[in-house]
Amino acid sequence: MVETAVEVSIRYRRRVLVLSISSLKGGVGKTSVTLGLASAAYNRGIPTLVVDMDPQADSSTGLDVPTSTRVDIADVLAAPKSQKILSEAILPSGWVGEKMGHLDVISGSPRAAEFDRPSLSERYLRRLDDALTRIAKGYRLVLIDCPPSLNGLTRTAWSASSRVAVVTEPSLFSVAAADRALRAADELRQRGASDLQPLGLIVNRVRAGSTEHDYRIQEMREMFGPLVLNPPLAERAVMQQSQGSARPIHSWPGKPAEEVAASFDVLLDRALRSESIRSRRSPKKDSDKAPEKKSSGGDGAEAKTPAGQKSGK
Ligand SMILES: Nc1ncnc2c1ncn2[C@@H]1O[C@H](COP(=O)(O)OP(=O)(O)OP(=O)(O)O)[C@@H](O)[C@H]1O
Ligand SMILES: [Mg+2]
After folding, report:
1. What is the mean pLDDT of residues 16-33?
2. Does the residue 277 lie in any domain?
3. Residue with the nearest Cα to atom 28 of ligand 1?
4. What band does 136 get if pLDDT is binned at 50, 70 and 90?
5. Number of domains composing the chain
6. Which ligand 1 atom is at minimum distance from the Cα of 33?
7. What residue's CA is closest to ligand 1, atom 23?
C-alpha cells in the first residue's frame, strides 16, 4: 500500500528527534553545543544529521565538511522537494570518513542569508520541514545549528523541530535573551509550529568558583525551574582546541575533554528522553492515542510551559 505524504511525515516524526539549538545572542555556544551533541551521538552510534542553518557555517567547519560544497542548505531551502538536490546536499562529516548515514551534514552557506528575512511566509517557514520529511527517515536525530537571531532561518528551523534547546551564558543579558527565545518559541508553537516544545536551557561557559556565575545559575533555576538543564557546561579550552582541529570532543585526549564529553552524553540522553512519539500535527485518530511516551525520562522535568515557568522542584 502506498503511503500518503501525511502518513510518511507522521512515521518520520515518530522516530526522529529534530532538535534546534538556538539563542538570540551571538557567541554563547550554539555551535559548540551542536558539535558536542553530534560527538556524543556519533560516539554512541546514533545515526545523526546536522543541518547548518547559520550562514556563518561554523558547524560545517567543525564537522570537517567543506563550506563551499556544490549543493548546500541554501539550495535545499530553495527546492526542498527536489530529491536530487536533497541527496546531493547530504555529506558525511569528515569525523567519520567517507561513510554516509552515521554522522551526515547539510552544510551551511552564506547564500542562506537570503532566507533570513524578518517576515517569511508560512510556505517558506515549512521548507526545512518539507525537506526533512523526505530525507530524515534514516536518522534517529537531527541537530539544527541556528543563527543568532529570530529571523526567517531560526523560525524555519523551529518549524521543522520538535524540541528547541536555548543556549545561554550565566550573565544578566544572556538570561534575558534566553527568556525572550523561549517566549518566541512558544509564540511560534501557538501560531502553527505545533510540534515545537522547549527542551530547556543549556548553560554554557560556566567558571567554577565564580560567584557571579553561581548567582546567575540560581536566578535561572528560580525563573525557569526544570527547564534549566543539567549539567551546566564548564568553560574549557579543550572545546576550542577540538573545534579548531575539527575533531569530536569524545576523541580528544585528556581529562578535561573527558569531562566535557560526559556532560554532552548526559545532555544527549535528556534530549532523546524528551521526545514525543506523537505528532500534534497528525490526524485526529493519531492525536487521540495516549501520549504514553511523551515524557519517558522519569525525571519529572519535562517542560510543558516555556517562558517564565516556575520551578516544580
Ligand atoms: N564551554 C566553552 N569553553 C570554552 N570555549 C567555549 C565554550 N563554549 C564555546 N566556546 C568558544 O566560544 C566561541 C563561540 O562559541 P560558538 O561558536 O559555539 O557560539 P555560537 O553561539 O555558535 O556563536 P554564533 O552566534 O556566532 O553562531 C568559540 O570560539 C567556542 O570555541
Ligand atoms: Mg554558531
Report:
1. 96
2. yes
3. 240
4. confident
5. 1
6. 18
7. 27
Ligand 1 in contact with 29 (CB < 6 A)? yes
Residue 299 lies in a domain: no
Q: Where are the alpha helices (DSSP H) in the chain?
A: 5-15, 30-43, 58-62, 73-78, 83-89, 122-125, 127-135, 152-159, 172-190, 211-224, 237-244, 255-274, 284-287
Q: Is 299 helix (H, G, I), strand (E, B) or coil?
A: coil
* pLDDT per position as a tens digit, 78-133: 999 999 999 999 999 999 988 899 999 999 999 999 999 887 788 889 999 999 99
Over residues 205-231, mean pLDDT? 95
Average pLDDT along the chain = 86
Compute the distance from residue 21 Cα to the ligand 2 centre, in Å.
9
Q: How many Cβ atoms from other residues are within 10 Å of residue 16's Cβ? A: 22
Q: Which domain holds residue 34?
A: 5-287
The answer to whether the CB of 58 is under 6 A from ligand 1 is yes
Q: Is 170 in the pocket of ligand 1 (CB under 6 A)?
A: no
Q: Which atom of ligand 1 is nearest to the CA of 235?
A: 3
Q: What is the CATH number of the domain that holds 264?
A: 3.40.50.300
293 inside domain? no
